[in-house]
Design goal:
This protein is an alpha/beta fold. The protein folds into two domains: 247 residues, Aldolase class I (TIM Barrel); 42 residues, no CATH class. Helix 7 links the parallel strand 10 and strand 11. It is globular, with a radius of gyration of 20 Å. The relative contact order is 0.15.
């Protein structure tokens, strides 16, 4: 279900012929930084927020879309009028027929029961490593229908014996019962980004007050929460922001924070979906800077894991 920044539903996820479904771009197997142990991560497509540093621009739009990679294009069927798509694609060739795989369809509608069956195929690896299934995004809780579909997916995976986790801003209104969500989700990996509310709303559209309201409900229902703190130059790396996030997390009863230093792994994806990347050329955080952040977060009484686990 598409939704606005305040979480109101506007269109797509949910049920097809009564069966819940999700638009998913990828199921990443053998992931090691999304909730502990070996995990399979299902990336839901669509996010109502716009963080300038987002490393998954392919998951911003709520609908399936076609990406185009110029370096792979053979120019074999260029339009006669020279017209190009917003991402630069010069032809009408479908991804399935592109001989060089320069085009790729991003996003596929998946029935929740079929997706759960795929995720549970790696159950022996989860059991051996202490891993499980993680649902990520985009924003995997964007809107009421998507929340219900994600909850159904978590419940199926849980019933199948897999540990489960969510990677989320938790900044859209909850339309499902927190108790039911907590019963199906073993870990909530929740973003703490720009601490100042006015700046957060202006830059990303995320309202930390909505997140914190949801956190109170989730933690009150017995949910296990890890604060995830992306450290972004010029946005979240100053001492004031770091300490505000750390103290807020601690005050809510959270005991662990994952410090996630900025990287450029998503830079090359932006042009393929016709978007500009605002963080181009920004260097990653130096090791000394990471150490400073860790010390600040630890000073608030939180256990710190760099890069998450």
């Amino acid at each position: 279900m598409c939704c606005s920044a305040d979480g109101r539903a506007t269109a797509a996820d949910g049920a097809a012929d009564g069966a819940p479904r999700l638009c998913v771009t990828n199921v990443q197997r053998f992931s090691l930084h999304d909730g502990g142990g070996i995990r399979s991560v299902a990336f839901t497509k669509g996010c109502p927020f716009r963080c300038p540093w987002c490393c998954n621009p392919e998951n911003l739009s709520f609908e399936p879309e076609v990406s185009w990679h110029e370096r792979l294009c053979l120019g074999c069927s260029v339009r006669a009028d020279g017209r190009r798509d917003s991402n630069g694609a010069p032809c009408d060739t479908s991804p399935e027929r592109c001989p060089a795989a320069a085009k790729e369809l991003l996003g596929q509608w998946r029935a929740v029961d079929e997706l759960a069956a795929e995720l549970l195929r790696d159950l022996p690896f989860y059991e051996e490593s202490g891993g499980g299934v993680t649902v990520s995004g985009g924003e995997c809780l964007a809107g009421a229908a998507r929340q219900r579909a994600v909850l159904a997916l978590l419940e199926l995976c849980h019933a199948g014996g897999a540990s489960t986790a969510l990677e989320t801003t938790l900044a859209t209104p909850l339309a499902v019962e927190p108790e039911r969500l907590v019963a199906a989700c073993d870990a909530f990996l929740v973003d703490f980004k720009i601490a100042d509310r006015a700046r957060s709303l202006a830059v990303t559209g995320i309202d930390p007050a909505v997140r914190d309201t949801n956190l109170v409900r989730v933690i009150g229902a017995g949910g296990h929460v890890v604060a995830r703190m992306p450290i972004i130059p010029g946005y979240t790396d100053d001492d004031t922001c770091v300490l505000a996030n750390a103290h807020r997390a601690a005050s809510l009863g959270i005991r662990r924070a994952d410090v996630l230093p900025f990287h450029q792994l998503g830079e090359g994806k932006y042009s393929s979906v016709g978007l500009d990347y605002e963080m181009s050329g920004v260097p990653p955080l130096a090791e000394a800077g990471v150490g400073r952040i860790v010390s600040l977060v630890e000073s608030a009484g939180l256990e710190v894991v760099v890069h998450g686990e």
